[in-house]
Amino acid sequence: MATRNCNFCGSQIEPGTGILFVRKDGNVMNFCSRKCEVNMIEMHRVPRRVRWTNEYHNIKEMKKQSTKN
Ligand SMILES: [Zn+2]
């Protein structure tokens, strides 16, 4: 079974763990934990604006590199 990535924080989800969330419109989302589910579904947060996600760190690193050059 292929490993999936969390739709919110971007970390890898081991098979047999995590949460599979299906929205009314049929969109399937994978979450590594309830924490990520709450942030995405109930709090409507954007991953690139939340400090502990992979996406935030990636954008931060890209900004660092662009300012160096
Ligand atoms: Zn997550």
Can you describe this structure?
Helix content is 35%, strand content 17%. Strand 3 (19-22) and strand 4 (28-31) form a beta hairpin. The strands form two sheets. It has a two-stranded antiparallel ribbon. Strands 3-4 form a two-stranded antiparallel sheet. The radius of gyration is 14 Å and the shape is globular. It is of the alpha+beta class. The structure holds zinc ion (ZN). The site of zinc ion (ZN) has 8 residues, from loops.
Layout of secondary structure:
Blueprint: E1 4-5, E2 12-13, E3 19-22, E4 28-31, H1 34-42, H2 54-68
Bound molecules: zinc ion (ZN).
Zinc ion binds next to loops.
Helix content: 25-40%
What ligands does this structure carry?
A: zinc ion
CATH superfamily: Ribosomal protein L24
Structural domains: how many: 1
Order of helices and strands: EEEEHH
Number of helices: 2
Question: What's the short version?
Answer:
With 69 residues, the chain is an alpha+beta fold. The chain has helices at residues 34-42, 54-68, and strands at residues 4-5, 12-13, 19-22, 28-31.
